[in-house]
Please model this.
Amino acid sequence: MHHLHHKKENDLIIKFDTNQLTPTQARLIKTVNALMAHIVSADEEAELFEGSAEMLIKMSELIHHSQFAQTHKELNYAEQALEYSIDFLRENLDSLLHTNLDN
Model:
């Protein structure tokens, strides 16, 4: 599906096979990747907070436009997935913030 390639020591190139993606999905993935890069390099509080909020909104849009959610619109899986994710974050936020998730 996607591959991470290190071109140079300072470059990180992420490639996706877009054959199975809609134009909306591809656009949202590009936006989320750009927002991640912006967030990790933010040097002002407002950039970090606003970028983080915007990224979560774009991620929720991506979930809404996922193939599974679109295939099963009548069951509202996108909303269910988002509610589950929010509940998980609330329940685990303290431990997630104090755990190094980068293995």
